[in-house]
Design a protein that fits this description.
By secondary structure, the protein is of the alpha+beta class. It has 9 helices and 19 strands. The chain has 3 domains: 92 residues, Pseudouridine synthase; 118 residues, 2-Layer Sandwich (Pseudouridine synthase), CATH 3.30.2350.10; 64 residues, PUA domain (Archaeosine Trna-guanine Transglycosylase, Chain: A, domain 4). The strands form 4 sheets. Strands 1, 2, 3, 4, 7, 10, 11, 12, 13 and 14 form a 10-stranded mixed sheet that branches. The protein has a 5-stranded mixed sheet with strand order 15-17-18-19-16.
């Protein structure tokens, strides 16, 4: 007999404004303790020194995490010129120095080279796995971490401030898997100097924005109050980029049981609109999401069933 998960049946998203000095895993555990939720996960790791948006999925929302992680993200970061560190952020040891300081014009001139589909080598200290071991564990043990470039996408990259000769502030919108620490390191090298991230804040993740965020302290103060529930966003918030499709009760029950729903009748044409074969939809019934489903050759097939 399967052991029942302990905790409350809380379903939805909390957009946490993560403080510096806390790992993403610690932040998720804290939200779970405060809400009493039986199950929790997050929509994309933030470095311990970073602050900003960490969307925390509770209950059935954990099934929609991949759709958040695949979405674009926005960051604001500060590069400290003149020092390269082994972690590519302020936490690491200095491994190279330079007296060169780029001007604003020099910086703006090279930014287009970092926009679009580019190759990026992740930091040595990352959560990526090599041979079953985390890169940061290998790096801490003094073992070699493969410097394997990966394709990542940068949609926008702009210089927004230069408070002094040693620092420059950037805003970026990136795709999945992009490391801001690597972007800062590579940008500095391209400018004929070295550098690392001195400050990093994530300002948006997929459909989630700073306007929806709440600090850990504020969430803890609210506890299980009605005000706290006002910060719990619906499960389907993570699926904003996926078209919704209304189902009848009978159709919804078929999806819940893992069976396909046929949509080949003439009456279905207006409902499905111009959906192409292979398209994902958020199947809805009674105002609640039933499943993430795929439209395939006239049939709607469940991909992830949501038990709400």
């Amino acid at each position: 007999m399967a052991r029942r998960r302990r905790g409350l049946p809380v379903h939805g998203w909390i957009v946490l404004d993560k403080p510096s000095g806390m790992t993403s895993t610690q932040a998720v555990a804290a939200v779970r303790r405060i809400t009493g939720a039986a199950k929790a996960g997050h929509g994309g790791t933030l470095d311990p020194l970073a602050t900003g948006l960490l969307p925390v999925a509770l209950g059935e929302a954990t099934k929609t995490v991949p759709y958040v992680m695949d979405g674009p993200k926005r960051y604001r970061f500060t590069v400290r010129w003149g020092e390269e560190r082994d972690t590519d952020d302020a936490e690491g040891a200095v491994i190279a120095t330079s007296e060169n300081r780029p001007t604003a014009d020099e910086i703006r001139a090279v930014l287009p080279e970092f926009i679009g589909l580019i190759e990026q080598v992740p930091p040595k200290f990352s959560a990526l796995k090599f041979g079953g071991e985390r890169a940061y564990d290998l790096a801490r043990a003094g073992e070699a971490v493969p410097a394997t470039p990966r394709p990542i996408r940068i949609y926008d990259l702009a210089l927004v401030d230069q408070p002094d000769a040693d620092h420059a502030v950037f805003e970026v919108r990136s795709g999945k898997g992009a490391y801001m620490r690597s972007l800062a390191r590579d940008l500095a090298r391209r400018l004929g100097t070295v550098g690392h991230i001195a400050a990093l804040r994530r300002t948006a993740v997929g459909p989630f924005t700073e306007a929806q965020a709440i600090s850990l302290e504020s969430l803890a103060a609210l506890g299980h109050s009605a005000a706290a529930s006002g910060h719990l966003l619906p499960v389907e918030t993570a699926l904003d980029d996926i078209p919704a499709l209304a189902l009848t009760d009978t159709e919804a029950n078929r999806l819940r049981s893992g069976q396909p729903v046929g949509l080949l009748r003439r009456a279905d044409r207006d409902r499905i609109g111009h959906l192409e074969s292979g398209a994902l939809v958020c199947a809805m019934s009674g105002g609640k999401p039933v499943a993430v489903a795929r439209f395939d050759a006239g049939d709607l097939r469940p991909v992830r069933v949501l038990n709400l």
